[in-house]
Amino acid sequence: MSSPLLEVKELTINFGGLIAVNNLDMKVNTGEAIGLIGPNGAGKTSAFNLISGVYKPTHGQVTFNGENITGLPPYIINRKGIGRTFQVVKPFGSMTVLENVMVGGFVHTSKRSQAREIAMQVIEQVDLKRKINSLAKSLTLADRKRLEVAKALATQPKILLLDEVLAGLNPTEIEESVKMIKNINSSGISILMIEHVLQATMAICNHIVVLDYGKKIAEGTPQEVTSNPEVIKAYLGDDYEAVNN
Amino acid sequence: MDAVKTKKIGLVVLVVGLALVIPMFVTKPYYLHVITMCLLWAYLASSWNLFCGFAGQLSLGHGVFAATGAYVAVMLFNDYNLSPWIGMFIGAGAAVLLSILIGYPTFKLRGAYYALATVAIGSGAVVLIENTQTLGPFNMGGAEGLIIKLMGNAPAYFQFMTKQPYYYIALIMLIIIVIFAFWLKNSRLGYYLSALKEDPEAAAALGINVRNAKLVAAAYSAFFTAIGGVFYAMLIRYLEPHAIAGPLMSNEMVFLAVVGGTGTVLGPVLGGITLHAISEVIQFYFGHLAQGLHLFIYGLIVVFMIMFKPQGIIEILQKYYNRFLGISDRGEEDNDVKSTSGS
Question: B2-149+156-342 maps to which CATH number?
């Protein structure tokens, strides 16, 4: 059995007294799409920040492609092949969509023409061609989220960490985005996604990890996870159980 | 598309051509000196812009680099007879080293804190120079300043008896920095700077080493600023610590670039030329009415520009420029329509 692409072991970080991520173990194999879900404040984004190098863990280890990348700075982690998007989107507002994506494209080349070529490909892939010369700050939320994905994709990652790229979208937009993420995944890029839109997560991911108060409380197929009483309790509270009994 | 290109080339030829013949019509040395200073300030504002405009870092201490270049070149010239043509590159090298020494710790600071650090460094430099009479074998002049040794008409030593050569040197320097800025803006580093200017965290997530990008850009900026400092020294033939290292120099670069339009290639050039010309004119007409009145008027102009045209003069001109080229102002939307109907 080959080793996983991304492996997280005993990952822990505390901010003062608050343990945001507590002893998290998780694996993503090449080509897999994994969902990371949990109530607000469960530590999902903190886990992303630990993997992508924004935070240094208090304890634990992140291994990527067999290499220990714990505590490396974000730009090196990106160059090793981990792309990420931000929950609060971060477009470069006064640059055009093409220029935004070219910034990512420049990571592996210093040639403008090559960066442009990479960017054009990615923009097509996320269906933003109609907005290619628009300033990023003029985009709708749905397009901004696509731009986030495009920028990360342009750095040619092996795995893409998607932080709530479906949040705030209407049903049609969600449907389109789900298709887009599936396409990215089937092009060979592994996906690790944080998402509150559960149906969408289930449509994309074959494996789901559930966090609550920084701890992993369940994992498995979407069906296993949604019927797990711990998960139901985390999402709906103890009262739900009381009614059920 | 070809017509646009022809017009662009035509405009460049026209502007450069005009600039080349100016000394034939402006023969009074005083006027030519003023015009040369306009070019120098356009050059210095552009040097500041290479880092501070492109990367969105507010340095209020760039005089330090002008002073480093000027003092190194002048001291080597005064005491060792080394031609300033060579000394200026040694001075610029020293400024680059200094920019790295300053940048390494200060680039961690964000926003106002970085600006404050540069103010402190600028003020410190003035005090340091004022209190240094000699540096090793070199005479630094201390608070009295440093007079540049006179050689008569000595082109090999960057000294001319007429103003014309200085004008042409300033013009060439300005052309070089515009070409360099254009190249930088369109290079990988230019894209990186634009990105980190808006969001350093997002830039880092795209594989950009934010601190290195800043260090390289600051080094370019320091290099060109130092060369400008040397030119200033050779033109004025006197180095006064406050004028070259202090806020007079540092702030002026910022004002000119901001009024012209920071982060653009031509903004600081426009700002440098027009605003410096205006400041000379108001000094000429109002300077004698009341002490400091011309500075007050100058300050008002800067404030009004920042309030009403924060993108700078370039923003106003862009519209006319596009109209001249025959590009619609709403070029963006037009492109959108084209690409949608094409796909």
Answer: 1.10.3470
